[in-house]
Amino acid sequence: MELAYDYPLLSMFWTMLWFFLWIMWFILLFRIIGDIIRDDELSGWGKTGWMVFVILLPFLGVFVYVIARGKSMGHREIAHARAQQAEFDAYIKKTAGESATTSSADELAKLSDMRARGDITDEEFRRAKAVVLGEARTPGGAGATPVSTPR
């Protein structure tokens, strides 16, 4: 290590390397603790045993955990990410698709309730009904579809 003190840049390199390894060690430790807590296959006693092992003997505990459960740790991480993505997709579909998933029967029922309450007139109801059913006329008359009116 005397060589490092003869060259200040090399000393800075060694300091940065040890600092980086120290930070990576804590990241690995916290990921393992998170994996122990999130694992549904482990019983409470199993989780407690691994936590005690990892906390009391951190270097040995982490290395043994990575050797014993490292492969399944990756599978659990992927499954967790897929579950989060599925929840997010379901939320987006529910939030964005609410207006798109209403059927014309639902729209007609809402219009009928509005007319019964007196919120819209009969003429407004007929125009809205035509729009819901896709029977609206195009302006200009050419290629227009007739609006059906109930009698």
Write up what this structure looks like.
The protein has 151 residues and is mainly α. The protein is built from 6 helices and no strands. Helix 2 (8-38) crosses helix 4 and helix 5 packs antiparallel against helix 6 (122-133). 4% of the residues are buried.
Element layout with pairings:
Layout lengths: L1 H5 L1 H31 L5 H13 L1 H39 L7 H14 L4 H12 L18
Helix pairs in contact: 2-3, 2-4, 3-4, 5-6
Distance between the termini: 100 Å
* Helical/strand content category: mainly alpha
Tally the beta strands: 0
Backbone shape: elongated
Uncertain segments: 138-146
What would a concise description of this structure say?
The chain has 151 residues and is mainly alpha-helical.
Note the main attributes of this structure.
mainly alpha; 6 helices; 151 residues; elongated
